[in-house]
Amino acid sequence: MARNPERRAALVDAAVEVLAREGARGLTFRAVDAGAGVPVGTSSNYFTDRDDLLSQVDAHLHRRLAPDPSMLADLLKAPKDRSLVLGFMRDLLARATRDRTGYLALFEMRLEATRRPALRASYTKSIRGDLEEGMQFHRNAGLPGGDETVTVLYLAMLGLLLEHLTLPGVLDGVLPDVTVPDGLVERIVTTIVPEAGDL
């Protein structure tokens, strides 16, 4: 199997683009090769099969979409209250907006996992790990609320990101005087995350 890491990275990035644009059914080695601008057959030298490619996409997206450690460090200098949680959620929204393609590919991976048991098992483990890591981060940072707060916040933000990135018109004007998506992020955090004194 080929070992050129730059070429592998380009192929995985091309796979992300194909997933976001054409969905999982359009994710073929030929489409990835075309997206990466490499000769036909190149992907088959880097990935044993489609499941291997999807696994590589999963790992890559988790790195690509992760928050910037320096941004986290800067935010953590602030008081550990609801407004800090709002800062983290605003950063999440900004990252999703900047890398819409990456987040659409994540949604496509979820859909494909419903059809592929092997992917379902690995992707469930991956996403569950992200949720548990978020809970641990929240506890370690001393942020208000506990695991239930993080879980409900996760579900609300996932729903907001899904609508904002796929059907943004659904949310326009749904709550009078609440901007979309920024005002909704603030409303989500205010509704879910307790004030520091309410713990």
Distance between the termini: 54 Å
Average predicted local confidence, pLDDT: 95
The coarse silhouette is elongated
Largest sheet: none
Number of strands: 0
Estimated radius of gyration: 19 Å
Helix count equals: 10
Percent range for β-strand residues? under 5%
Poorly predicted parts: none
**N-to-C order of helices and strands:** HHHHHHHHHH
Any overview of this molecule?
With 199 residues, the chain is mainly alpha-helical. Helix content is 70%, strand content 0%. It is built from ten helices and no strands.
Index terms:
199 residues; mainly alpha; 10 helices; 0% strand
Structure summarized in a few sentences:
This protein is mainly alpha-helical and 199 residues long. It is built from 10 helices and no strands.
Topology (SSEs and partners):
Blueprint: H1 5-22, H2 29-36, H3 42-46, H4 50-64, H5 69-75, H6 82-98, H7 100-113, H8 117-141, H9 147-166, H10 182-192
Helix pairs in contact: 1-2, 1-4, 1-7, 4-7, 4-8, 6-7, 6-10, 7-8, 7-9, 8-9, 9-10
